[in-house]
Amino acid sequence: MMNWLRVNGQSATLTLHIQPGAKKTEIAGMHGESLKIRLAAPPVDGKANAALLLFLAERLGIAKSGILLKSGQTSRHKVLEILAPPPDIRQRLLDEKTAR
């Protein structure tokens, strides 16, 4: 059972484990109960958080303003809320063919 994604009505909650300063930005599979995402951006002055929101918005085909960082501002463990998530959100996050 994957608890990293919970869809409830008009929003979805993502539980993520972030690895900043990676060679490239990509989804790296599971890390315990979280979805692991590697970010090329460094963990400095909110750059990694901004890069994370942009990456997810592009991946999900939604506006960056539709993603809220609920917790983990300065932590590798983050909880995000996706407003009006696409119906195939799980596939878009896990399927490499949907990546650009």
Question: What are the SSEs and their pairings?
Answer:
Layout: E1 5-8, E2 11-19, E3 26-31, E4 34-38, H1 47-60, E5 67-71, E6 77-83, H2 89-94
Parallel strand pairs: 2-4
Antiparallel strand pairs: 1-2, 2-6, 3-4, 5-6
Task: Write up this protein.
The structure is a single chain. The protein starts with a strand and ends in a 6-residue tail after the last helix. With about 100 residues, it is of the alpha+beta class. Strands 1, 2, 3, 4, 5 and 6 form a six-stranded mixed sheet that branches. The protein has helices spanning about 45-60, 90-95, and strands at about 5-10, 10-20, 25-30, 35-40, 65-70, 75-85. It has a single domain (about 5-85), classed as YggU-like (Conserved Hypothetical Protein Mth637, Chain: A), CATH 3.30.1200.
CATH-level-2 architecture: 2-Layer Sandwich
- Give the C-level CATH assignment: Alpha Beta
Number of structural domains: 1
* CATH topology term: Conserved Hypothetical Protein Mth637, Chain: A
Radius of gyration: 12 Å
Backbone structural class? alpha+beta
Q: Helix content range of the residues, please?
A: 10-25%
Mean pLDDT: 93
Major sheet attributes: 6 strands, mixed
- Low-pLDDT runs of 5+ residues are none
End-to-end span in angstroms?
27 Å
Shape: globular
Keywords for this structure?
100 residues; 2 helices; six-stranded mixed beta sheet; alpha+beta; Conserved Hypothetical Protein Mth637, Chain: A
